[in-house]
Amino acid sequence: MKRMRSFLLLAALIFALAGMGQRTQGAAAANTLPAQQAQQSLPTIASAVDREISAIEKQIVEAAEAMPEDKFNFSPDSLNIPGSEYKGVRTFAVQVKHVASSNYFIWSPLTGDKVPESIKDGNGPPDLKSKADIIKFLKDSFALGHKAAATLTAENMLQTAGNGKSTRLHLAEFGVAHAYDHYGQMVEYLRMNGIVPPASRGKSD
Amino acid sequence: MKRSSNRLGLALVAVTLLGLAATALCGQSQPQNEGPRPARSRAEELLDRWNDIGNKLVAMAQDFPEEKYDFKVQKDERTFAQNLLHAAALDFVLIRRISGSNLGPDFGEGDNPSRDVFKTKADVVKFVQEAVADGAKVIQQQGDAGLDKTAKFFGNRMAHNSSIWTFAIEHSGEHYGQLVVYYRANNLVPPDSRRP
Asked: Are A75 and A96 within one domain?
């Protein structure tokens, strides 16, 4: 009986403490609620970067799909524009493969994945020729990007990844920025072939 | 000897208890699994990216021959100068929303300033330089705290400043890529692509 009374007392004490904790949390939440309502709830760094990757992925995949297969090896050099010098610049296909290979090089330190052995340099696997294969390679590289974004936390984003000096956040964002640079070039290649880039259809930008 | 060893024992117990108390206090104020303290801030990271693409555009604006400023590769697109003006104007639109101030010169409505306002190469270069410098200033002034605040984005939708800055950087990157092709169309190598 004495042991039972002790148990009940202990249980009452635990409930009382738990209740206090909840009230404290509730008060804290109430205090911060107006501030939260004034601001939108913050996305996590992982979801913010993931959204950026999705945005450029959509634009660049659509741009690649918009180029007819028989023009995938187009280079402005073939246009012989008077006064131009495009010798040695990347073809459309190599632009796409370059973005994809760079994605692997830039984002793999975040995930710890090994860069596929087929990627010998920044221009991607030389034996990758068909439009379907190249677009698959591109999409796979963005899948790695999403995996890399998912590794980001508020705690680790400013830490370096692997043996490099760049922070995880820098690498994640650099992959996106680099892809936009080449997307801009692909836009020009499309227009040189009379194709309006899908993302620009119906607007001036 | 025995007394001194007792004292030593008590001292050790006291130090251990103090250590435990300190650890418990630290544990309360710091989330578990927190990594090493970052050497750089988010704002510093952002500033690097802002300056990187901004300075690439400035270098192009300074380097491209003035007589080719109205060149474009295809008929349905912006000229070299219009690309730069558009990128810088959009920067200003977004900087103004983030900062809540009217930074930069008057370039009219929208984000496609007329060449009538920016007639010379020097005018365009100055405009691009100001956009990069003003943006950098706001990023530095607002620091990390500013990145988590919200401002009006497109379609009057509110967005976090970190997302707005990132959009501006990416937008500049896209136009930089287009200008790379304009460069080569004129038998010129973009400044950033020149190898010693």
From this structure: yes
Contact with chain B for residue A191, Cβ under 8 A: yes
Do A149 and A60 lie in a common domain? yes
| Rounded Cα gap, residues B164 and A190, in angstroms | 28
Closest by Cβ to A177, choosing from B34, B173, B185: B173
Q: What is the pLDDT of residues A48-83, one digit of tens each?
A: 999 999 999 999 999 999 999 999 999 999 999 899
- Decide: A179 and A98 in contact? Cβ < 8 Å: no
User: How far apart are alpha carbons A130 and B136 in whole angstroms?
Assistant: 44
Chain A interface, mutation test: which of B184, B187, B194, B195, most A Cβ atoms within 10 Å? B184
The interface predicted TM-score (ipTM) is: 0.77
Report how many domains make up chain A.
Answer: 2
Does the beta-carbon distance from B169 to A182 stay under 8 Å? no
Residue among B45, B40, B140, B57 nearest B91 (CA)? B57
Of B34, B41, B150, the CB nearest to A155: B34
Pair (A74, A31) in one structural domain = no
**A176 and A116: one domain?**
yes
Please judge whether B170 and A52 are an interchain contact, meaning their C-beta atoms are less than 8 angstroms apart.
Answer: yes
**A chain contacts of residue B173, beta-carbon cutoff 8 Å:** 177-178, 180-181, 184
Domain of residue A22, residue span: 1-41
pLDDT along chain B (196 residues), means of 10: 41 41 36 52 96 98 98 93 98 97 94 96 98 98 96 89 96 97 96 83
Q: What are the structural domain ranges in chain B?
A: 1-37, 42-193
B42-193 has CATH 1.20.120.450 classification: yes
Instruction: Convert the pLDDT of each residue in A116-172 to its tens digit.
Output: 999 999 999 999 999 999 999 999 999 999 999 999 999 999 999 988 889 999 999
Question: Based on the domain organization, do A22 and A94 belong to the same domain?
Answer: no
Question: A12 and A67: one domain?
Answer: no
Enter the pTM of the model: 0.79
Interface test with A, best of B47, B174, B187, B193 (most A CBs within 10 A): B174
A40/B112 touch (CB, cutoff 8 Å), yes or no = no
Is the distance from CB of B182 to CB of B80 less than 8 angstroms? yes
Query: From the DSSP assignment, how many helices (H) and strands (E) are in chain B?
Result: 5, 2
Residues B17 and A202: their CA atoms lie apart, in Å, by: 71
